[in-house]
C-alpha cells in the first residue's frame, strides 16, 4: 500500500504537464513571426547599403585626391632616399680615411707627461654637447712646487675664430699618489664659428695636451653635398621626374652648410662592466629648406616651392668611430684597475712571483721576464680591453693569442733545467736546423713564420685541437 501511495503523486504531476502541452491558447500566429522576419531583413539591408555607401564615398574621395600633392609626396620620399645614399657614401669614405690632422686646424693632437684631453665626439653641430675625457698624472713634486709656482690645471676650448667657448680652472687637480680621470662637458653655443675648434690643457703656464674637433664642418658634409648634387643632376633635371602630369625639378646647388646633422643616441649592452653611457648610434641628415620647381606638364605652369627634407642614415659608422676612440683611450690610460697597462703589470708581477721560486728551487728558466712573456701579457690584456669595449673579440686574434701563450709556457718548460736553447715547438715541426749553443731566443728564430703557416703546420702534425681543426678546415 505504501508503494502504490508513493506512485500516485508522480502520476498526477505527469498528467498535469501533458495538459499544459495540449493548451494552444498561447500560440503565436505565423503572420506575426513573418512580420518580425521582414523587419529584421529590412534593417539589415539598410545597414549594408549604408556601409556600401561609405566605402564608395571613400573610394571616390581617394580617386579625387590632389595629384599635385601626390607628386610632391613621392618626390620627397625619393629625395630622402637619395640623401641617405649620399650620407652613406660620406660615412663610408670617413671610415676608410679617418682624419688624423685636418688642414687648417689651429692645434695638433698632442700629449705630454701623461696629460690627456681627448674629445669623445668630434663631429658637432651648434647646440650639441662636447664631451672631453681628461686624464691627469700623479705628481707629488708638482704639489710641492705649487707652494711657490703656478701649478693649476686649466682647460681652454676655442672655436675656429679663436673665440673662447669655455675656460675651466681645476686648481691643483693632479693626483698625489694616483692618477686622476674625469669628463668635462661643453655646450657649443649658437654664435660659435663653424670650422675646426681646439682643446688645450695647461699645467701652470705649460701646454701639456691639445686636440681638435669640428663644428658644422668636415668632409662628411662636403661629400654628402657633392653626392646629393650628382643624384639631383641625374634624376631631377629637365622634367625627368614625373608623376600624373606633374614634374619636379631640383637645382643641384646644395651647399654643405645647408645640411644639418642630428644624432640618435642610445646605450649598449655589455657583458663586462655595463654602463648607461650614451653613444651616437645613427646620424639624421636634414636640409631644412630644399627649393624645388613643380611643373604642370599640361599647362606648362611652374610653381616655386620648398620642403623640409630629412632622413636617417643607415650606417653604423658613428657608433664604430666612438667605440674606436674609447678603445684607443682605454689602451692609453691607466686610471682604472682593469686598464690594459695595469693588467700587463699584474700579469708581469704574477709571473715574477711564480717563476722566481721555480728558478731558485726547481732549476726553472734563467730569464724570468722575456720579450715573448711580455708580448703574451700585452696580447692577453689587449684582448680583454677589446672585449670590454666592443663586447666581442677577433676570433683569429684569440686563436693566435691562445696558441702563443701556450707556446711561451711550452718553451719555458722545455728550457727548464737546461742551459741549452731549446729547439722549441715550431723549430722542431718546421725541421729547421738550429745551433744549440746559439744565444738567440727560440721565439726570435720563429718570428718570420706567419699565423696561417703555423695553423696549417699544426693541422698536419695533429697538434692543433680537434675543434679548432674542424672550424679552420678551410683557412683564409
Task: Please characterize this protein's 3D structure.
The chain is α+β, with helices and mostly antiparallel strands and 476 residues long. It is 45% helix and 21% strand. The chain contains 13 helices and 14 strands. The chain has helices at residues 2-22, 30-63, 67-96, 140-145, 219-235, 317-332, 340-361, 371-390, 395-415, 425-430, 442-445, 451-461, 466-471, and strands spanning 110-111, 116-119, 123-124, 129-136, 153-158, 164-171, 180-187, 195-203, 206-215, 242-243, 246-249, 260-266, 279-296, 302-313. Strands 1, 3, 5, 6, 8 and 9 form a 6-stranded mixed beta sheet that branches. Strands 10, 11, 12, 13 and 14 form a 5-stranded antiparallel beta sheet that branches. A 3-stranded antiparallel beta sheet has the order 2-4-7, with no helix packed on it. Strand 10 and strand 11 (246-249) form a beta hairpin. Mean pLDDT is 79; it is low at 1-7 and 419-440.
Please count the helical segments: 13
H/E element sequence: HHHEEEEHEEEEEHEEEEEHHHHHHHH
Major sheet details: 6 strands, mixed
Number of beta strands:
14
Uncertain residue ranges: 1-7, 419-440
Question: What is the structural class?
Answer: alpha+beta
CA radius of gyration is: 40 Å
Distance between the termini: 107 Å
Approximate helicity band = 40-55%
Shape: extended
Strand content: 15-25%
What average pLDDT do the residues reach?
Answer: 79
